Amino acid sequence: EPEVTQTPSHQVTQMGQEVILRCVPISNHLYFYWYRQILGQKVEFLVSFYNNEISEKSEIFDDQFSVERPDGSNFTLKIRSTKLEDSAMYFCASSEIRFGGYTFGSGTRLTVV
Amino acid sequence: GDSVTQMEGPVTLSEEAFLTINCTYTATGYPSLFWYVQYPGEGLQLLLKATKADDKGSNKGFEATYRKETTSFHLEKGSVQVSDSAVYFCALSDESDGGSQGNLIFGKGTKLSVKP
Known about the structure:
The complex is a heterodimer. By secondary structure, chain A is an all-beta fold. In chain A, 0% of the residues lie in helices and 50% in strands. In chain B, the strands form 3 sheets. In chain B, strands 2, 5, 6, 10, 11 and 12 form a 6-stranded mixed beta sheet that branches. At the A-B interface, strand 4, strand 5, strand 9 and strand 10 of A face strand 5, strand 6, strand 10 and strand 11 of B.
């Protein structure tokens, strides 16, 4: 069964450092998403990406965040200068159509120290 | 804005017990409703979905019925197994929001532990 692959599974970084979280969506999917889950809290929408541009973003997704699809297979989330409160599980997802439900990756646990 | 509320966990049951996890929603339009499951160490997996009122989603013995009159989408299973131990998330996607690209709004998740 096709999978969404995320790397790394766990990343520890120092406050103020840049991190890049990587995702390989399912190859025929057109819509891409990042979500995050702070420990013990809700899974929250960050950003959606379609046709090589951001289609929607939440208020969480401020200027410190950016997304890119650099080569037609990878989908990356960059946090420019990490803060302690960015510590969370980050999930990538992709879907073939808009409202059919997604396939999620296993997540990257980001710990900012 | 749209929101999802699901029962607090953790829920601990014995094998073969009946499971109900309550989920209610608030939406301005006509949402699609989903249950996702997260097994330990894994990502979120779509368990079932319903796209309109009175639809019943079902998968792996789990069922949920889209109840517009009570704005609910409770998850049920008649006889749980140890392998059902996981975190269950209720979610909605509001198609009537013309600007939406289908992003999901999740509940907090309910952890289920099933004991042999």
